[in-house]
Design a protein that fits this description.
Layout lengths: L1 E3 L2 E8 L5 E8 L5 E3 L31 H4 L3 E6 L6 H17 L2 E6 L4 H13 L4 E5 L7 H9 L4 E4 L11 E4 L2 H20 L4 E7 L5 H22 L4 E8 L4 H14 L5 E4 L5 H10 L7 E6 L2 H9 L5 E6 L2 H16 L7 E3 L4 E2 L4 H4 L7
Length: 373
Amino acid sequence: MNVYIMKEVDLMVKGRTGKMKALSLVVLATFILLAGCTTANDPGPNANQGDTGNQQTNTVSNDPAATADNKDITIGFSQRRVAGSDWYTNLIRGAEEEAEKQGVKLVVLDAQGDVAKQVSGVEDLIAQGVNAVIMNPQDPSGVIPATNKLKQNNIPLVVVNSNIDPKAEAVSFVSDDPRDTGYKTGWELAEAASEKYGDTIIKAAMISGYPKELVSQYRRNGMIAGWTDFMLEKYGKSNLELVAERFGEWVPDKALPVMQDIGTAHPDLQVVFCMSDVMLPGIFTALNNTGLNGEVLIGSIDGTKEAIRRIAEEPESGLIVTVSNDPRVQGADAVKIAIQVAKGQQVPATHYIANPIINKENAKEMYDPNSPY
């Protein structure tokens, strides 16, 4: 059954550059049609980091202190999972390279996608006497027992990449701005769909990370807002029929079967919102298996080398845009902030990395065949 969302909202409307302007709108019959698709309510801004809706990227010093002062500092890194994701691998690589550069010890523990293992891993880090912990949480609320123990032991927490429950009381959050990143993706994808289909109703699917995961919710809301704002600006209405949202758990092997199910059920699918380039190989395979390869417009996030290459060299693939979210920068900046925190220095409550748009206009310039990411 199709559900028409009709409500009054106070929107912060942003153009593709990310510059924001306040605009009160009554959104009536915007044709966001949810067919067999259930989504959680948007939990709103990252409450533990303050209102970040219009926050600019903060600058982190490249030299928190002299390297000699850092030799006695040990930073723990609790990573939700590594296997199957080049993004996570590069997040750790960026952190390790920065730790070596700064002369601090970095202890990385892989929770392998298990919340209980992540909690016990943090307990191990506490026992090792770390001075600060960086965490990429597997579950925003499930890790609270671990963060409570950090607070009990006066060990500061820096959260990276994935949003966490405000109860964690993290001192800093390092990430892209997921709503802005999603917004840019949605805007670019809407522009491409407008050129191809005009203002007709567009059947779309969304491949997200995990259910109830805050970063997935923020990116989803950003994508839909970007699409809607473009269509409202151009046609005075939106035209999005979201036929399905499924969860690929940020890896291609999980994205493939859910995308294939959608493609089989909806052979007239026209658009795919993908929340991570890492899932794209599974999505492309699924579209090929269902006869939709090259027929569907795709917008994604992360800015991997392979995604940029496809945009630059394979327009027939249907990949229209990826918005950069460099894990190496996130990992490095998280280490810099953790060092500052360990020394009792002030740090930004929220640190957003740059998230430029990569599309057909600049993909050739942005493509680096020698990049490890």
